[in-house]
Amino acid sequence: MTERDTDIEFDFFEEPETREAARPDRPPARGGPRPPIRTPQGFTPLLRLVGLIAFAIVIVLLLVYAVEGCQSSSKHAKYQNYMTKVSQIASNSHSIGTRLSTLLGQPGLKASDVQNKLAGLARDEQQDVDTARAINPPGRLRDENSRMIDALQYRYSGIVGISDSVRQALRNKNLAAAQAGALLEAPAQRLLASDVVWDDSFKDPSKQVLRDQGVGDVRVPDSNFVQSPDFFTAAGLGAVVSRLRGANVSPTAGGLHGTNIVSTKALPKGTELSTSQRLPIAASTSLGFAVTVEDSGDSAEVHIPVTLTITNGTKSIVRTQTIAFVDKKQQTTVTFRNVQLDPSFFGSQSTTVKVKVNPVPNEQTISNNSAQYPVIFSLQ
Questions:
Q1: Across the strands, what pairs with 292?
Q2: Are residues 101 and 334 in contact, defined by beta-carbon separation less than 8 angstroms?
Q3: Cα(328)–Cα(301) distance, integer angstroms
Q4: Can you give the pTM of this predicted structure?
Q5: Contact 300, 251 (CB under 8 A)
Q6: Most exposed of 174, 181, 240, 320 (fewest Cβ within 10 Å)?
Q7: pLDDT tens across 54-89, in order?
């Protein structure tokens, strides 16, 4: 082995250890410690924050309005549902009152038939009372609901009282017609009172409650049981008893027959209308007209239609009532209640109120059977 070979072998085994690659030196720190990181400056972040807050407020308001809207809708539905039920009862009771007047004024019926029909009317009215008691009114209308039930109860007891009084009057043959009429008049006063209770203790207070609750557009129903108050007087009811006893209270064939209009008054103030002067009439939800008619003949008259017409030249409102019975030389009043006017009637200088009483059989003079009154309506 040559010396060169020995050197090569020695160099191989004596190769120095491999060192890590040297890391590049870091640049020396300049200017001391690093400053803190700052948020961007300017109006943009502030505007974003304001926008987020405004958006949150809008969401909250929308939620509040949605909840209030649901509550308002629910409240309106609750009161509307209640008044719908009352409206059906009011209509039924009004119909019973009309049937009662027709029954008592109808000639030719036997006493037994009248008694049976009165019992049927009483049952129908008692059903209205029971239906009203089954209604669950909104909390703020509980007192008014109780007064509505009172009105219906007066009607039921009035019918029962009239039935009992008719039976008693027919049993006592020595009771004069005037006394018999007075006997029937006492329970009949409950029928008149029922209309007052309905209007003053149920309808008007209920309207105020609805307005206070923000649902004043819900309609409160009316119900008038007595159509002709003068019929339920001692004179009118005495004629009913006389007829049931078999006396002839129907119009006689001969003699003088006729009726005439005594007066027409605007309700509720009772302003008497004039045929020669245009009078101002303050209209309200309780606007009505009372027409007083006199039997100017020598005979009692029955079933006399009376028509009320209000016209402004282009539109007309027509209502009709029937006088069941009026005795000779006596007066009776027909009342038209709750007349609702179209807005076109207010302020019109061409508005008139016309009243017409249909002629009775054998009536010769009919010029006093109608009257026309110029009026001007205004809102109360």
A1: 263, 333
A2: no
A3: 7
A4: 0.61
A5: yes
A6: 174
A7: 877 877 777 666 555 555 568 899 999 999 999 999
